[in-house]
Amino acid sequence: MPTCPSDNQQTVDQTDFWTDGGIDWDAHRIGWAIAGACAAATVIISSISVLQHCRSYTNPAEQRQILRILYMPPIYGVISFLSYRFFRSYTYYELVEVVYEAFTLSAFLMLLIEFVASSGSGHKAESSIARKDKRKLPFPFCHWRYRPTKPYFMYTLKWAVLQYVIFRPAISIAAIICQAYNVLCESEGFDAQYANVYLEAVDFVSISVALYGLFLFYGLTKEELVGRRPLAKFLAIKLIVMFTWYQSFVFDALEGRVIHATQYWTETNIADGLNALAICIEMIFFACFMWWAYTPAAYRIEGAKPTSIWRPLWDSINFSDFALEIWSSFRFFISYIRGIPETRSRYAHQVTGFDEAFGLEKSGRAAYVEHNSSESVIRGQNGRTSEYDSSRAPRMSYDEDIRLAPYRYGDARDDHDASTPVDRYVSEGSHPRF
């Protein structure tokens, strides 16, 4: 494989930032100051929003994901400033920066799942995810239909988004190695002689699958998400990605036409620097947009004492929940391939319910009843034990009243035939209030 032509000039600017008469304000240093000031402002705005969530940490299941999303503007702003300041290493910073997009999209999916699972009492049981009918897939696969009640559908949808957490970091690591060996060649576009075209193709497929999974889940649950501003929340994330990609395309197109090399900077250096500077400026506005879209006011409880900031911060940087979800989906698919009946049976899925299939926290009441029940796992019709219906270690959920599992919502006191842990939970009078 041939090596890439250099993106940097051989001549290096040797002048100092500070001179006897003050700061040497050339165009590059002016941009340096603007980028640094904007990155600092983004960090301050995002920190205020994050701290407000931390001090009102009343719904960890949701706010854990929100905090991860709120980190996106400061991460992009700081890394873009560094890529502007150390422009000769721009490619390395860019490859690190885009990794966090994968974690943000995955956190957004997990947040939507929590929203649906904790739907308010205004929703009826018939509108829950387990009651939805067979329907068409979104464009461009609208000729195919899917049934949300199938157990493999839920695991597949979750995996469709979470796979990006695996592929995007792997792509960046591979690209960094290729860049170190001078065979990546981003400035050469989609030349098949270099590694960039192949890595971009894998990234395109991976992010397309992730976004399709998000759109599919939103279309399926948009009734349950009413009042949660899901589109505003999604745009706060996706506009960052769109702006950074399209403006990078524009600056690359201007190379050699409007942008010309100077003594110390190549056309690529200048285009990359302008892109980094634009990102630093834009992140101020996106930080404000996220502050509004993911408002901490929704989680404040009047008269409640402020919560400690340390647990929320730890929860937000502890990505073990992603690893757990990926591993549980992987185990499900292995069992599906092996033909385990519970991975295919609609009835086994209905007993399992929406929250268990997605690995959501059980309510304290439901977890306690199931944990102390003599029947700790739900058995399929053939009497075999399903490892996917077994209870996990109880984790606290902050909505004790709403469960989206497809059991009956009538007066459970008249039900004398409750035989499963879920039925016993309903029969004890803890059914949702509608």
From TrEMBL:
Compartment(s): Membrane
Annotated InterPro entries: Ostalpha/TMEM184C (IPR005178)
Membrane topology: Multi-pass membrane protein
Chain ranges passing through the membrane: 30-54, 66-86, 98-117, 155-177, 197-219, 274-294
Pfam family, any one: Solute_trans_a
UniProt keywords, alphabetically: Membrane, Transmembrane, Transmembrane helix
Region described as Disordered: 372-394, 409-434
One Gene Ontology term, aspect cellular component: membrane
PANTHER family the UniProt entry points to: ORGANIC SOLUTE TRANSPORTER-RELATED (PTHR23423)
Name under which the protein is recorded: Organic solute transporter Ostalpha-domain-containing protein
